[in-house]
Amino acid sequence: MTDKINDLLRRVAEFSPRTAADVEEFRIRILGKKGELNALMEEFKSVAPELKRELGQQLNKLKSAALERINALREEAQAAAADSAATLDDPTRPGTAAALGTRHPISLVRNQIVEVFARLGYTVAEGPEIEDDWHVFSALNFPPEHPARDMQDTFFIEKNPDVLLRTHTSSIQVRTMTQQKPPIRVICPGRVFRNEAISYRAHCIFHQIEGLYVDEGVTFADLKQSLLYFAREVFGETARIRMRPSYFPFTEPSAEVDVSCNLCGGKGCNVCKGTGWLEIMGCGMVDPNVLESCGIDSKKYSGFAFGMGIERIAMLKYGVKDLRLYFENDVRFLRQFESAL
Question: What was the pLDDT predicted at 90?
Answer without folding.
Answer: 61
